[in-house]
Amino acid sequence: MTPSNFLIRGLLAGFIAGLFTFGVAHTWGEPQINAAIAVENAHAAAEPAAKHDHHAENGTVVSRENQSTWGLATGTMGLSLALGGIVGLVSAFAVGRIGRLRPGQSTALVALIGFVSIALVPFLKYPATPPAVGNPDTISDRTIEYFSMLGISLLAAIGAVLLARRLLGNLGVYRTVLIAAGSYLVVVLIAGLLLPTVNEIGSFPADTLWYFRRASLMTITTTWAVIGIVLTGLIGKLYERESLTAARKQLAASL
Description:
The chain is mostly helical. The chain has helices spanning 3-46, 64-94, 103-125, 139-194, 206-254.
């Protein structure tokens, strides 16, 4: 049960997750992006010609066909591989440090905590927005606010895990989980209330926005779910194999 074994299996899980993520993003996400671009083009066509910024056409143009195929595949595969490797290494560190959980169980817990703290909670506060939504002048501010929420959520999750480790021996599993999860929720709810609210939707169609955000959530959920499921299964098999080998060695030594 070495970190390298976790890393290799994490990368494999990330590769598989990248394939599934690309399928979901291409099937459900790209149509919503095309719909958002159509809205943007319609607004641009309705504006006076003097308002158009012709300088924006001087840069390198990547076709939508390449963006929705090779570009999307490269992005999803790269992100999923990196995420799988990170989850694998964190899972290796967590072995034996979270109560009496087996390596497969602690790996599943790491993936679940990562999804909630890194993907779900920041998305609920600052959901993804399609093209033509948002003021270009506030991109930097919105980026800082999003990563602030992500950082607070991740630190709160780490703090909740450390708190659970301290309380587990005295309070038992049920009360420990309630207190740790409740503490995390309190922190992220306060952060969500204190951080600025972004409301730059304008006249963008509500149904198109909803479908885009739903597809975005489906995509990131697919990535985390596949990594968690595949890596948990791989680590579980590794643990069973290593346990069997150790038992055989112990039996041979006792003869």
